[in-house]
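Researcher: Next entry in the queue.
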Amino acid sequence: MDYSLLFIVLFLLSFGLVMLYSTSSYEAALEYGDSAYFLKRQLVFTLFGLVLMTGVSFIPYTFWKRVSVLAYLVSVGLIVLVIPFGMEVNGAKRWIRIPGLPMQLQPAEVAKIGVIIFSAMIIEKLGRRSLATIKGFIFPMIPAVIVAVMIWQITDNLSSAIIVVAIVFGMLFVACPDYGKFLGIVVTVLVVGAFIVWYTVNSADTNSLDFRGERILAWLDPQAYAGGKGYQTIQALYAIGSGGVFGKGLGQSMQKLGFIPEAQNDMIFSIICEELGLFGAISIMLMFVLLIWRFMMIANSADDFYGAMLVVGVISHIAVQVILNIAVVTNTIPNTGVTLPFISYGGSSVFFLLSEIGIVLSVARGMRRDELALME
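Model: Structure for this entry, 376 residues:
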């Protein structure tokens, strides 16, 4: 067992539970009459997730190669099931209720794992030489793009769709670091993004824009949309600014008292900044850096290419999600609704993130003891 990785994960989970209670207690007491309502639910999800993580860690990671096609098909099937059986929460139809369990399944979270398992198999079969060609590079992206489009169109969840594509992009970058090719793709994406922003800003009828267009305008000028899409961002920035270097103290946030809507979800980082200050914010970011560094050590010492690609997929998932969440909270990019891994409230998110950690621990378990000793 890789105890260093396990310690970092347990620390992030424990810190997340403490901050979740601090952030959500006021709203939970008003809505449910129990200040620990969100904490209790998240604790149950976390405990089940830890059990799942432990079980998965004992499964040889080569097993996932044998069921990779099935994992991909299950991911696609669950997304399709949202059409007839999906639950609508806060105006979004992205969840499926699991009979007998106090949680809703978000197929997009399952799809992220399915894409990692399936893409690792494809990348290994193609090999580095084939990946260096245009056809070899595009082929592994096709299944991910199909899933991403389904997530976007069926569940109306563009942020998860972007994360799915970014996961495979990161895996390909590590498998075949053709920097010129990747630089060209990044520049193309930035140019397209800049054009979308320009078109949105210069639209003749801003009233006809959808909610994503409104988010772009609110991102550029939050004060102009303080009564609408810019409200949450402004309140989050107030929280960050008022925290100072060392914060107001744990539990002393003012913005969580009804000012930031559902602060326990994607805006929990702003409460961390307010209560623990710049010191607390940097500390938690360093823990994520340590987590990713540990992943990289395991991937670099994995027994085979498939195991390394599994770990790289998990690295890409967590790294992209952390970067997007912090960027949204600090108004660096438009609001996307991405949660902070292991810390934000969400049963599906923590449950499947811990299953990914179980896969990484399985890869680490397959390594020789002398390699682990060197890593320590």
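Model: The beta strands are 86-89, 92-97, 104-105.
Researcher: Noted, moving on.
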